[in-house]
Amino acid sequence: MNVHDKTGGTPGVSSVAKLMLEGKACDMPVRSGTIGPDVIDVAKLYKDTGCFTYDPGFTSTANCVSRITYIDGDAGVLLYRGYPIDQLAQDASFLETCYLLMHGELPTAEQYVKFKKTITNHTMVHEQMTKFFTGFRRDAHPMAVMVGVVGALSAFYHDSTDINDAHQRQIASHRMIAKMPTIAAMAYKYSIGQPFIYPRNDLDFASNFLQMCFAVPCEPYEINPVMSRALDRIFILHADHEQNASTSTVRLAGSSGANPFACVAAGIACLWGPAHGGANEAALQMLEEIGTVDRIPEYIAKAKDKNSGFRLMGFGHRVYKNYDPRAKVMQATCHEVLDALGKKNEPLLAVAMELERIALHDPYFIEKKLYPNIDFYSGITLKAMGFPTSMFTVLFAIARTVGWISQWREMIEDPEQRIGRPRQLYLGEPKRDFVKFDKRT
Ligand code: CMC
Fold first, then answer.
1. With contact defined as beta carbons under 8 Å apart, do 376 and 356 qualify?
2. Which of 42, 195, 242, 416 has the smallest set of CB atoms within 10 Å of its CB?
3. 400 touches ligand 1 (CB under 6 Å)
4. How far, in Å, CA of 124 to CA of 113, rounded?
5. What is the pLDDT of residues 360-398, one digit of tens each?
6. Catalytically annotated residue among 141, 238, 317, 324
7. Nearest to residue 175, comparing CAs of 164, 167, 186?
8. CA dist., res. 36 & res. 68, Å (int)
9. How does pLDDT run across 37-46, given as a tens digit for each residue?
């Protein structure tokens, strides 16, 4: 295949790729983004050649045009609407980041105040929703509860489910960002048998979540500012990540015109998996299992042994073939939190740091470009803050909600959007005639 012929005039099209297949030629436009690799537009491939492309796991496939998040995995760069993640984590608040992701620009002071007020006003859930929780077993995983209860939002807020109405899309978006922490905290409170704590409008987003999780009605709850700043930063780090599995799930579910709350519930279901959002839980469990620094070589050897089925959780990434830029901020946040809580000597931190040091010098990990990802240090941090492991992925879901809904809105507003319908390479039986029971051997 050749890429040639600069086409000039056509917007976004920089050249044309020519594919020759058994004498049939197909010209495919090559489209350039602002930054990042070009894409070969194969939309007409089937019509011109009768062939599909085959790309399990979509490693070479761009599914959409997006203006929200950019990742350069080789350089370890992550930008939200062009702004580097470390700058946002340093200077922005989570709600400022939400506004940025949703609207494309940082808010003015006035826009920020208005946005904050809107989100705050949507934090309560319909009182009848409390009944949902009691239908779950107390020992249910909170992600299972999240899938169910967030899906159930679609049965409560009928005035924001017309996806063709921009105003309703906006209300649904605000509702999801605002209610997700409330639902998550309720899932946690239910699991430990404590009463639900209502949201407080005088608190910022992260502080409010902390109080809904850790306050009890019988005594005042004091918010530790280091904890709330750290949590806010963790939310920023997880807010969006381009076309990852859960975001693609939300887009695919939404492409049929489905209810937005149900689409986000689908995203939560996908996020739950250990190869995606569930890795923070798995990473902490692994560090606990390793337990002491002297056992690290055994686990490194296991990770390198293909037959063991074991992987170093919190290591490696489909896109980052360099240090995950979120992991750098996460590592610093982890140290800050442990310092503030007087847990500097937390044994798991020593295990994590030594594991990271060894892995970064080991030829196996160097050759395969396996670096710590965001989940490597997030588990230790969240554990120190008092969250049980089962809540880790739930916190990820709270943060990623804004990414999901921003990407969902972008998809709905995209004139090129069509229902997502991948094709396949069929290796099953060709057509054959039905055989009745008495004739089957
Ligand atoms: N430990 C040991 N070996 C690994 C690891 C690991 N964590 N990750 C990848 N490899 C090896 C893998 O065995 C393969 O080796 P080979 O080429 O010899 O077959 C090679 O590296 C490439 O792996 P892959 O599975 O083809 O890569 P992928 O892009 O499909 O998978 C991943 C990416 C994140 C699923 C994988 O690295 C992994 O399972 N990591 C552990 C789970 C984890 O930490 N996930 C969190 C991802 S970040 C959070 C998020 O954004 O959702």
1. yes
2. 416
3. no
4. 19
5. 899 999 999 999 999 889 989 999 999 999 999 999 999
6. 317
7. 167
8. 13
9. 999 999 999 9
